[in-house]
Design brief:
The chain is α/β, with parallel strands linked by helices. The chain contains 13 helices and 14 strands. It has a single domain, classed as 3-Layer(aba) Sandwich (Peroxisomal Thiolase, Chain A, domain 1), CATH 3.40.47.
Length: 413
């Protein structure tokens, strides 16, 4: 029999806030993280804007020496992890080290380190390559560094599945606890890729919005005038805990993770099959895993990238899975505010589901002005909606055909 798994801690570094409370206030308040790029000179790039994290103070989470040897993606991950453990009341212990694990992934890893070290090599030769290059660059190091911070000696690894990365991390952490391999898990993802190579690469493949004249309104999921996603960055990490372990210590419980579905499209490097059949199967698996009738679901936090192909395909997938009940769902894409945080997206969006459940408020899809007849569900346009949320679904998809759906249920004793 599977053990029950609950959410007891949340941590977030996002383009609309450097903690969970500020991020949530920003999402409900319709704040956009989009602005012209400040991290490098983008004047020669086709796309000149992104959703950057603003005013992040790493000294709150790492000492100077440690931070200097950590790529920004690891710094973001540590920030979100520390927040989550503090929120859960576990930052100073309260768990058996061997029964606490970490699964924190990144879609790209230390891209800034790669760019810097490649420049050092090209200008100064191989002796200019830092001895810290490899451990700063590789995508598993955030999980390792976080485990060392908290003495977590349980399962420890990174997921890498593009924009499904942190959703996979949360799903695998859920199963790790459910099947008895840990009592506590930190899980999520981090990304710091507002950099020339990422902006140039995504831009040249025409995946990004080109609304350089209006960065704050460029991310517009489900809108009829959407023209691509807006690159974001940051981290989202949660603490998952075995129910009895949480109850024994009187933990606050945000909700119960009850279902996890993961599938592959086996279709195209970057595209999706019609009506996103792979995402349909992921949602059905999550519902089946959680013993959830589709009519019980109140809210779907959509992958909702603001790209011409993804948004109508996801709406078709939701209709296929939920049938007539799709019309009664609240759907929204918080990427409208945060941009697409790549490997961190699913973690932040799972947090949005937990907070929607806590507060009875659906975060809106902002920048919505022109209806698209193919995206004709209730996408919660522009303003939040008061609604009791008993079951929420968080969807994620990624280049390579990766799909994840996670089901969260209101916890009841």
């Amino acid at each position: 029999m599977k053990r029950r798994v609950v959410v007891t801690g949340l941590g977030a570094i996002t383009p609309v806030g450097n903690d969970v409370a500020t991020t949530w206030q920003g999402l409900l308040g319709g704040v956009s993280g989009g602005a012209l790029i400040t991290k490098f000179d983008a004047s020669d790039f086709k796309v000149k804007f992104a959703c950057e994290v603003k005013g992040f103070d790493v000294s709150r989470y790492m000492d100077r020496k440690e931070a200097k040897r950590a790529d920004l993606y690891t710094q973001y991950a540590m920030g979100a992890a520390v927040q989550a453990m503090e929120d859960a009341g576990l930052a100073q212990g309260g768990f058996v080290p061997e029964d606490c694990g970490v699964i924190i992934g990144s879609g790209i890893g230390g891209l800034a380190t790669m760019e810097e070290q490649h420049t050092a090599y090209m200008t100064g030769g191989n002796r200019r390559i830092s001895p810290f290059f490899v451990p700063m660059y590789i995508a598993d190091i955030a999980a390792g560094v976080v485990s060392m911070r908290f003495g977590a000696k349980g399962p420890n690894f990174a997921t890498i599945s593009a924009c499904s990365t942190s959703a996979h991390a949360i799903g695998e952490a859920f199963r790790t606890i459910a099947y008895g391999d840990a009592d506590v898990m930190l899980a999520g993802g981090s990304e710091a890729s507002v950099l020339p190579m990422a902006i140039g690469g995504f831009g040249n493949m025409t995946a990004l919005s080109e609304r350089n004249d209006s960065p704050s309104t460029a991310s517009r999921p489900f809108d009829g005038t959407r023209d691509g996603f807006v690159l974001g960055e940051g981290a989202g990490v949660v603490v998952l805990e075995e129910l009895e372990h949480a109850l024994r210590r009187g933990a606050r419980i945000y909700g119960e993770v009850v279902g996890y579905g993961a599938t592959g499209d086996a279709y195209h490097l970057t595209g999706q099959p019609e009506a996103h059949e792979g995402l349909q199967r992921a949602m059905r698996k999550a519902l089946r895993d959680g013993g959830i009738n589709p009519t019980e679901v109140d809210y779907v936090n959509a992958h909702g990238t603001s790209t011409p192909l993804n948004d109508p395909n996801e709406i078709k997938a939701i209709k296929a899975v939920f049938g007539d009940h799709a019309r009664a769902l609240s759907v929204s894409s918080t990427k409208s505010a945060t941009g697409h945080m790549l490997g961190a997206a699913g973690g932040v969006e799972f947090i949005a589901c937990a907070l929607a459940m806590r507060d009875g408020m659906i975060p809106p899809t902002i920048n919505y002005s022109t209806p698209d007849p193919e995206c004709d569900l209730d996408v919660t346009p522009n303003v939040p909606k008061a609604r009791a949320v008993n079951v929420a679904i968080s969807n994620s998809s990624g280049f390579g055909g990766h799909n994840v759906s996670i089901a969260l249920r209101r916890w009841q004793a």
